[in-house]
Amino acid sequence: MTLQIGATAPDFEADTTEGHIHFHDWIGNNWALLFSHPKDFTPVCTTELGALARLKPEFDKRGVKLIGLSVDPVSQHKLWGEDIKDVGGVAPNYPMIGDTDLKVSKLYNMLPADTQGTSEGRTAATNATVRNVFVIGPDKKIKLVLVYPMSTGRNFQEILRAIDSLQLTAKHSVSTPSDWQQGEDVFLGGSVSDDEAKKLYPNGWKSPKPYIRIVPQPR
After folding, report:
1. Which one of 79, 164, 179, 193 counts the least CB within 10 Å of its CB?
2. What per-residue confidence (pLDDT) applies to 171?
3. Is 48 helix (H, G, I), strand (E, B) or coil?
């Protein structure tokens, strides 16, 4: 069963392409994006890791640290990085976890807890469920979970958009409508009374329905 939003992200220690880490310490006071892959040297994932490397400055601006995971060893991740650079123009510029004992994959419920053995001999098909995105806040709580099939590449622009919403709504008592983009109007949260809202928005708000109060995005 997938970890639920609001749950504490399981902590772990692991070897990565940038050295040994203790996950919660590595996150520190930042946000984090943990994204997993079923196997090194697979076509869709090769494009995804390159896409994230190109977008890293956007995640940096939002205070989001990137970390990848594949069940293969760190030595293979480093070789794969050369292919990723050849295909996408940029090598991974963030750590990649080597999960050869499947510990992290099982800890995050991407593989059943009773899965036996190591990554040795496992294929992309047997690891198909190791293909998730977890957005984790500075409080180490899971804020968003996305699960993708192997055949569908992930849309990291959408993930950036979702992070913009998560960070805005963590700071202000608002929510964002469908397809919302940075700078567009938002909804006032139900916990904000009309009297409080008048102090925050003296010019009022749009209310097409009694339960909808539309206001400019707070800064």
Report:
1. 179
2. 96
3. helix
Q: What angle do CA 13, 140, 126 make, to 5 degrees?
A: 55
| Beta strand pairing call for 96-98 and 64-70 | parallel
Beta strand extents in the chain (DSSP E only): 13-16, 19-22, 31-37, 64-70, 96-98, 132-136, 142-147, 174-175, 186-188, 214-215
What are residue 130's phi and psi, to 5 degrees? -85, 70
Active-site annotation, residues: 45, 139
175 bridge partner residues:
187
Strand partners, 64: 31
The structure tokens listed for 146 are 């996305």
- 64-70 and 31-37: which strand pairing? parallel
The predicted pLDDT at position 219 comes to 85
The total of other beta-carbon atoms located within 10 Å of residue 173's CB is 15
Mapping DSSP to helix (H, G, I), strand (E, B) and coil, where does residue 75 land?
A: helix
Q: List average pLDDT for each run of 10 residues in the chain, which is 219 residues long.
A: 89 98 98 97 96 98 98 96 96 97 97 92 93 98 96 97 98 97 96 93 94 94
Residue 119 confidence (pLDDT)? 92
Cα–Cα dist 132/147, whole Å:
5
